[in-house]
Here is the input.
Amino acid sequence: MYVCICKKVTDGQIRQAVAEQRVRNLRTLRRELGGCDQCGKCAPDAKQIIRDSLDESMGFATCSPASL
Here is the structure.
């Protein structure tokens, strides 16, 4: 699913970049994938995907509102 429509960045791309340790926060997301640097509406969702992906990589279970 597209997270950043302006730059055509998907949740899969974000998760992959986190798994490859290229993305750890919004600053590195902007640098690596170009997302979240135009209108900014996607920043909260992108930040949550990064956080969830980091938690998963550390072995923590997460519960997002979308999964309830």
In short: Residues 36 and 43 are 5 Å apart (CA to CA).
